[in-house]
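REQUEST ID: PR-0412
SUBMITTED BY: lab tech R.K.
PRIORITY: routine
TASK: structure prediction, single protein chain
INPUT:
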Amino acid sequence: MKRRNWRNWMRGASYVLGIGTAYFLVLSFMLMAAGEKRVWELFIISILLGGLAIAIWPKEAQEKKKKKLQLPKKKKKFYSRPTLYVGRSKDSLM
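STATUS: complete
OUTPUT:
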């Protein structure tokens, strides 16, 4: 079986176990509310099913973070009042 196919099967099984956990938890709480005395077995089974569902969830391979395309930063334009250049050119000042 291919690795990806195996992951999909394990994810599906984990979903089924999670739904089973929720079902058993609701059932055990309903039976407790109805006054049933021995519901702890059902409660413990639901907790174990939940742990199993978490345990078999496939671990995803950490994908390399794609570096964002960084555009060159634009120079900020400072608009100030015009400067009078007396006797000098603007280029010689910079």
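NOTES: Residues 3-33 form the longest helix (31 residues).
REVIEWED BY: pending
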